[in-house]
Amino acid sequence: MNLANTPDGRRLEVDRTIPVAPERAWELLVTPEWWPEWGPSVRAVDCDAERIEAGTTGRVRIPGGLWIPFEITDCRAPTDQRAGRWTWRVAKIPATGHRVEPEPEGCRVVFEIPLAAAGYAVVCSRALARIEKRLVDR
Fold first, then answer.
1. Which range marks the domain in which residue 80 is found?
2. Is the pLDDT of residue 132 over 90?
3. Cβ-Cβ contacts under 8 Å for 119 (sequence gap 6 or more)
4. Helix extents (H) in the chain
5. Total domain count for the chain?
């Protein structure tokens, strides 16, 4: 974990290097039907989009059964030269950013956590472990 300046201001970053192509990690992160597989705080997703893009809306069900609306505020796929990044608002509040950076031996997946939600770092660390397991095991 470290503090970093992001396009959304100062954030706590939690990351993991995963030995897969950046496109594979990106696909997992931008496909809402897969979010409950890797996101410990997402039980279900209601979204018409197969893949998110800026402006995509929907709702996520969190533990306890409550449905919360979301909107994707920015979404740019990774290239050979640049990281892919998507951000969202959950219940109209800026939430965790998601980033995939190309690396020589795979990619680095990063969650950017607002400082006010620093306690969420534990959840993001679990999500990264689930992402790696799913990507490496398949």
1. 2-137
2. yes
3. none
4. 22-29, 35-38, 121-137
5. 1
